[in-house]
Amino acid sequence: MTKPVELIIFDWDGTLFDSVGQIVDSLMFAAKAFDQPLTSENAKSIIGLGLPEVAEVLFPQVPELHTQILKSYGDHYVEHSKTDVWFDGVSELLHDLKNQNVKLAVATGKSRRGLDRVLNQTASVELFDVTRAASETRSKPDPLMLAEILDYTGVRPENAIMVGDTSYDLEMARNIVMPRVGVSYGVHSVNILNQYQPLSIADDVAQLHDFLNQQVQAKVEA
Fold it and tell me: What are the start-end ranges of the E strands in 18-118?
């Protein structure tokens, strides 16, 4: 029997929002400001984690500088990310799903302050039934933020789908036995995403839109 899809939860950066390049640039800026070694590939690889976890992974040798490095990163990102936008087709995707009475949510590694800023920047606050940021719960891949979203919406894990571009997103969903969909246009490769048994991996937003519509419109069969 096909489970009806009542809720779709999206990661933000690299899944809905075209911000990966600016995140990497801002991390590189902060690392250089404090004379810390960092490659762009390493900076990209941690996108999706909460900020404290980012500092622990990228700069374990200088825990005393974590607060200053993260502030430098945040200031640079806010200053330079004002032109970041949704990927092409995301607005249409979200409005289409909303018009089909599907609940929508965001589960992100951003801080609440950062998430609220980009929700306002994209005028999308009203599109989402609930949003969770890493600063107010546990960082991915711990499934707590998904559990909190499910509790708020009253939806069971099997009736929801998590959509994300990183292993952290898909591992988080797997940890709570939630169906999941990967996107290959963000941070992690198809090979990495496939390790977490996604229902599908979309190469662009149009493919994602088509696949999610198929899941939402699937009939429950006896």
Answer: 103-108
